[in-house]
């Protein structure tokens, strides 16, 4: 069924209105000005679509929060959750249970190198928090290098690691976080000479380490491909260079693939594009497409061996929740059976070409960048000067005119995620060519709004 057609399954406008009224009154929304929230009351979803109580269907070009990698309501995952619920809904972290052990083993199989021991969490934030704990425990050092254009989560420590202004609210935050610049070639803070000290990795990091004292640095944490802050793909060689810096100084490399992992970039994990294995890989979102909250910090066996006889200072009541683990096991099986990662890679070729064509047609597109089903369109007022369409704003919210683009798309039945001046194209990895073409056609129409400001 095409996006614009009405879905008759759950039409009940009064119920929809009541749900929104209750949400406005009784639910505090994340990262929002509460008086401005206007949530869509979602009645149901399937595949790459969801629909509201008026029967209006939306093509989900955002995978919700870039997490529904397999698409909505996958029957195999739903069945696995039901089967697990019948057997055992919950069991504490000190126990062992079948789905938890099975998922631990499967994660060791699908992740690269000797990443083989998982610490389970309820999401990505907690995975990053515990990665920092582990790195500090293993190295006996306290500093963590994190980058500016990054998002690592919402709790005190993770939001301090976060480089974007969302961290301001908790500052001074967690002690020991040191900031580095990003390999953002389009707006390189070093002016991008050849060779570039920032975008090549080592020179910039070595300078930071010289002043900080490499012996005080426990870890460098990076989003392998930056997500929320603009889908930034590092240049070839960057990640290898960071790995070498870490090895030279006994610093652990933590890769945050909460958004970039599980097929999003067209490989199981984004670090595989550059053959780099981190010491700790943090995942969530696509691990089970969010059907039940789940994340994991996955460490190399060799790292864990160094602390096996020591007390690990971390734990969560719901770590390795049986329903979450069962859903992830089913999701990984479905990924393998249905070639989900392969489809993301093939659709990546399509998006590269289709978004490139949009760039030719729309002067307001400054840059198109991405991999697999992970694309960003950066909007500008002037290609020559790269003047941003939306000037820097601390909340990262897409102010007009980017918000106008998203709103117009929504009216046409296309749900888009935007951050600041970047429109993201991040659909479920199972998207078909037909659905992708439908979304791109709507995007083509609504980008005319951005061109008006050019
Ligand atoms: N790290 C990255 C790269 C993310 O994109 C996110 C969420 O968007 C997080 C961490 C936090 O994950 P969660 O919201 O599951 O705690």
UniProtKB/TrEMBL annotation:
<dbReference type="InterPro" id="IPR015421">
    <property type="entry name" value="PyrdxlP-dep_Trfase_major"/>
</dbReference>
<keyword id="KW-0032">Aminotransferase</keyword>
<comment type="similarity">
    <text>Belongs to the class-III pyridoxal-phosphate-dependent aminotransferase family.</text>
</comment>
<dbReference type="Pfam" id="PF00202">
    <property type="entry name" value="Aminotran_3"/>
</dbReference>
<dbReference type="GO" id="GO:0005829">
    <property type="term" value="C:cytosol"/>
</dbReference>
<protein>
    <submittedName>
        <fullName>4-aminobutyrate aminotransferase-related protein</fullName>
    </submittedName>
</protein>
<dbReference type="InterPro" id="IPR049704">
    <property type="entry name" value="Aminotrans_3_PPA_site"/>
</dbReference>
<dbReference type="InterPro" id="IPR015422">
    <property type="entry name" value="PyrdxlP-dep_Trfase_small"/>
</dbReference>
<keyword id="KW-0663">Pyridoxal phosphate</keyword>
<keyword id="KW-0808">Transferase</keyword>
<dbReference type="GO" id="GO:0030170">
    <property type="term" value="F:pyridoxal phosphate binding"/>
</dbReference>
<dbReference type="InterPro" id="IPR005814">
    <property type="entry name" value="Aminotrans_3"/>
</dbReference>
<dbReference type="GO" id="GO:0008483">
    <property type="term" value="F:transaminase activity"/>
</dbReference>
<dbReference type="InterPro" id="IPR015424">
    <property type="entry name" value="PyrdxlP-dep_Trfase"/>
</dbReference>
């Amino acid at each position: 069924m095409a996006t614009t057609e009405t879905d008759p399954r759950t039409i009940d406008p009064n119920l929809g209105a009541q749900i929104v009224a209750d949400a406005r009154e009784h639910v505090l929304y994340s990262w929002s000005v509460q008086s401005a929230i206007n949530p869509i009351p979602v009645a149901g979803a399937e595949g790459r679509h969801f629909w509201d109580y008026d029967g209006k269907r939306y093509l989900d070009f955002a995978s919700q929060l870039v997490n529904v990698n397999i698409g909505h309501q996958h029957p195999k995952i739903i069945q696995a959750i039901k089967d697990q619920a019948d057997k055992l809904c919950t069991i504490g972290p000190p126990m062992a249970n079948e789905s938890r052990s099975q998922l631990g083993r499967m994660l060791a199989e699908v992740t690269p190198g000797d990443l083989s021991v998982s610490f389970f969490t309820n999401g990505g934030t907690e995975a990053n928090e515990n990665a920092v704990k582990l790195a500090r425990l293993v190295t006996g050092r306290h500093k963590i290098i994190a980058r500016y254009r990054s998002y690592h989560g919402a709790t005190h420590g993770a939001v301090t690691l976060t480089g974007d202004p969302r961290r301001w609210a908790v500052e001074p935050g967690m002690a020991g976080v040191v900031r580095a610049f990003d390999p953002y070639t389009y707006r390189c803070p070093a002016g991008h000479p050849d060779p570039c000290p920032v975008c090549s990795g080592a020179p910039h990091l070595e300078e930071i380490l010289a002043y900080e004292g490499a012996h005080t640095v426990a870890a460098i944490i990076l989003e392998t491909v930056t997500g929320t802050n603009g889908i930034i793909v590092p240049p070839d060689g960057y990640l290898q260079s960071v790995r070498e810096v870490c090895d030279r100084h006994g610093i652990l490399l933590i890769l945050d693939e909460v958004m970039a992992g599980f097929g999003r970039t067209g490989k199981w994990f984004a670090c595989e594009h550059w053959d780099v294995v981190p010491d700790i890989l943090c995942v969530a979102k696509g691990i089970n497409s969010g059907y039940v909250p789940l994340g994991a910090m996955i460490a190399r066996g060799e790292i864990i061996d160094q602390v096996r006889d020591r007390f690990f200072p971390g734990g969560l009541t719901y770590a390795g929740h049986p329903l979450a683990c069962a859903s992830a096991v089913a999701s990984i099986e479905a990924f393998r059976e249905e070639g989900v990662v392969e489809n993301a890679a093939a659709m990546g070729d399509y998006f590269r070409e289709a978004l490139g064509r949009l760039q030719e047609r729309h002067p307001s597109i400054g840059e198109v960048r991405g991999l697999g089903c992970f694309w960003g369109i950066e909007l500008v007022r002037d290609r020559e000067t790269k003047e941003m369409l939306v000037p820097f704003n601390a909340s990262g919210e897409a102010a007009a005119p980017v918000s106008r683009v998203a709103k117009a798309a929504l009216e046409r039945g296309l749900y888009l995620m935007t951050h600041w001046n970047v429109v993201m194209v991040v659909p479920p990895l199972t998207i078909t060519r037909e659905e992708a073409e439908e979304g791109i056609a709507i995007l083509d129409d609504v980008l005319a709004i951005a061109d008006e400001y050019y």
